[in-house]
Amino acid sequence: MENNNAILIELAKQFAIDYLSISNINYSTNQATTQEWLNKIFKKDVIVPGDVQDVRNIFVIGAGASYDSYRHIPLANEAIDRIHQNLSTTELYQNIFFKKKVDEHKEKIRSLYGLNPEDFESQLAILSNYIKTEDGRNQLAALYDKKLYPCLFYEILAHLFKHRFIDAIINFNFDELLDQAIEEELSHDDYHYIFSDGQCQPMEDILVNGRLKLPLYIKPHGTISHKSSLKFTKEDYFGLSSEMKRQLEDIISGKRMNNLYRLKRVNVIVVGSSLKSFEFNQILNSLPDDSAIYYFSTEGPDEEFLEKKPNLKFRETFRKYCKYNNTSLKYERHYIIGDNESLKYNKLGRIFLNLYDRLFRKKMFTPLYEPKDIYRHLLINEIFYDETSGKRLFYDDDLKKEIIDDRAYISIRTLVELLIALSKAKFRITIEELMQERFGYYYRLYYTRSQRLLLMPISIHEIFQEFNMTIESETNFLTIKSDGEDSPFTEADRLDGERIIRTLFDKLISTCRNRGLWELKETLKSKEKEIIRLLKNIHSHDSLSIAPKFNDLKYFSFKQMREDNIIPTKLALMRRFLSKPQDWDLVLILSNKAKILLNLLTQEEISKQDLYKGKKCCLITEDAIYSSILKKMITSKRLIDDKVHLSLKSKNNDNLMLFIKTDNDKKTWRFVKGIVYHRINNSFKICPYFVDSQPDLEEIGKIFFREYCDVAKAEVSTRGKGNSIDTLNELILSFISSPQCI
User: What are 437-445's contacts with CB under 8 Å, separation 24+?
Assistant: First the structure.
């Protein structure tokens, strides 16, 4: 049997290559330059220039992926049995005359479509002949209307989806466990969601430079929250609509801007699916010749067969279901991965945790370019998932009690999300910002369900009281009080985090006790060390995430902006910031919270590269706390005025970095490049733009100029210039000639 770890490393490598591609990093012209950048991004020899190509990674999700984490979401045979029981059709199917009719339908499915009549889709198609479509869809809804169930595999998959390591997900499940994970990671503007014909997108509308603008999420069989979309009849299963079929073919075949230019490689990662869809298997045959299929089987494949001819086994499976034209797949690389470890549940979660956090993030990337962590996902799994039973905490198989259990779960999930949001914001956040986080989503759910059960919901202010929090009247920021009057929390506590996190954790324990949630209280106590560790990691790591928006009004305000100027990933941002440091001498920075600057300017690896030797920086920020940190970190890098200027405006949403090159005699200058982003209400999501046209750079310069002049007027005479600076040119020349920056 092939080595699973080696296969996971190969798959992680494909994620990394796709990440390079989406980040608009092309290395085809100069191999030496290519190797230089790869050495910066990756650890030694992980990826070499010959590996780099444009690829497309697509996940195909089946019922086994949901069942792997939650056994109460039924697989095919169990689901059919339940439907028969609920509709009282079991006896009807046993009637000899009726059974003859059913057998005729089965034979038709076998002979005409080449499918197994005992498969789930086939049995639904047969059942649709004898019951109303509406009744059938209602039965499916009763079985699969599951959403608020955290699943580690789906959490990691949604994270991969958000940060552009994968391009598309094709989910054949009715349930919305994965939908929920994606909704928590991305807003609806951050990806294309397709579950019906009318939502299909022409490729020319969703591509930029031949790459997908946004990730694509497709549910060909419909989704449970839209019952009319559910595929129940035989026409549904044995005849995908032309629009849906075309959408799947365009994605899987590697189509780019036209039929003549396609990707050479598309990776299909099949998880929890037996690939028994007749038409979908035909679509898979449109994969480019150099493509690969990675097949994850949580039940464990036949080891003896795999040791002999794993590829033949896989091909024969496809021949069985595509036999009407005797076709077979045409690639050489097919992998079947099983997991025979002792873990009873959540195998997929553990496999992909190993793939992402250990193989991919830590062993492939250099620290400066390391992808975003998954600590929050691990924390949710640690608290709310019970690997012994394979169930979410606060779940009961009694459907009536499940409604109450959901309220208990949502109530505590809201509090956990409060701790995560506070840690992520370093304990300085407004109510408006807090409600934009997952806390706001879960609190609204909790409030609504409490009212439906005729219960009195706990208000947000009561939650704040439970955690000893108040609202600053002047700034509207939440303030966390310490229990002891003699030891109030300081700004050092806020930036270090541990003392406040431990206080909040103790408050969570007492809240669980007060609400009679003994099961969760004991879970929290038993996992205290790991939970606090994860919260500390959330606090200390990068909180900003890039969400490219192609409909942002800010984007349309530029004169010469192109779609490929939108920076889609953290890697793309880092490369734009760090590339060609010899081409600039002065950087003007305006940042409301300065968080992105902390991420970029205070990296130890950047300091080691001495990128700022001889450079100058003029920095304006709103946050006094961050300004003190930045001053310490940037002073050695020639901070103009020997200070960080504090903005006079509250919540300045314009954030920019403007790079300037001077001539030898330092009497003239020119704009080189700019990076600008707009943060609404200090959201953690940003959409940065790379600006390279002179008209747009001049407009950005005017924004900085206006802000600097306002600050200069309010400060004591700046370098003796006072208020005499009245043109952008004079301002920049004064920076260039500033004596303390020489």
Answer: 437/684, 438/184, 439/414, 441/184, 441/417, 442/410, 442/413, 442/414, 442/417, 443/414, 445/148, 445/410, 445/414
The rounded distance, in Å, linking the Cα atoms of 86 and 95 is 18
Beta strands at 586-591 and 545-546: parallel, antiparallel or unpaired: unpaired
Report whether 477 contacts 624 (CB < 8 A).
no
The values of phi and psi at residue 614, to 5°, are 80, 0
CA distance 397 to 383: 20
pTM, two decimal places? 0.86
Task: Spell out, as residue ranges, where the chain has pLDDT lower than 50.
Answer: 1-2, 298-344, 399-401, 717-723, 740-742
Gap between the Cα atoms of 76 and 273, Å rounded: 11
Burial of 727 (0-12, 13-18, 19+ CB in 10 A): exposed
Give the span between the Cα atoms of 120 and 116, in whole angstroms.
Answer: 9
pLDDT at 587: 86
Side-chain-facing half-sphere of 143: CA atoms under 13 Å = 27
Q: How far is it, in rounded angstroms, from Cα 119 to Cα 230?
A: 17
How far apart (Å, rounded) are the C-alpha atoms in residues 380 and 391? 13
H runs (alpha helix) in 131-217: 133-144, 152-162, 177-185, 203-206
d(CA 661, CA 665): 12
- Which tokens sit at 339? 């997991």
| CB-CB contact of 480 with 500 (8 Å) | yes
Q: Are 82 and 74 in contact (CB under 8 A)?
A: yes
Cβ pair 421, 434 in contact under 8 A: yes
The token pair that represents 303 in the structure block: 């080891």
Cβ neighbours for 257, distance < 8 A, ≥ 6 positions apart: 203, 204, 207, 210
In the structure encoding, which two tokens stand for residue 261, read together?
């230019």
> Would you say 646 and 616 are in contact if contact means Cβ atoms under 8 Å apart?
no
Distance of CA 315 to CAs 4, 119, 202, 281, 555, Å? 20, 19, 31, 11, 48
Q: What is the structure's pLDDT at 158?
A: 96
Task: For residue 347, give Cα distances in angstroms to 80, 353, 443.
Answer: 25, 10, 31
The residues pairing with 685 across neighbouring beta strands, listed in sequence order, are 545
Rg (CA), the chain: 28
- Residue 500 CB partners (closer than 8 Å, separation 6+): 422, 427, 480, 489, 493, 494
Question: Alpha carbon of 79 to those of 82, 123, 142, 171, 439: distances in Å?
Answer: 5, 10, 10, 18, 34
Cα separation, 135 vs 140, in Å, equals 9
Interatomic CA distance for residues 228 and 599, integer angstroms: 47
DSSP state letters, 271-338: ES-----HHHHHHHTTS-TT-EEEEEETT---HHHHHH-HHHHHHHHHHHHSTTTT-----SEEEEEE
Which residue do the tokens 């490729």 mark? 203
Q: CB count, 10 Å around CB of 138? A: 15
Distance of alpha carbon 320 from alpha carbon 88, whole angstroms: 33
Give the span between the Cα atoms of 637 and 644, in whole angstroms.
13
Identify whether the C-beta of residue 64 lies closer than 8 Å to the C-beta of residue 299: yes
Neighbours of 478 (CB within 10 A): 22
Which tens digits make up the pLDDT trace of 594-603?
666 666 665 5
Identify the pLDDT of residue 96. Answer: 65
Give pLDDT, residue 595: 63
Using alpha carbons, select from 222, 227, 241, 212 the residue that is nearest to residue 179: 222
> What pLDDT shows up at residue 116?
66
β 586-591/654-662 pair status: antiparallel
Q: Which amino acid is at 11?
A: L
The answer to whether 483 touches 435, Cβ cutoff 8 Å, is no
**Helix, strand, or coil here: 226?**
strand
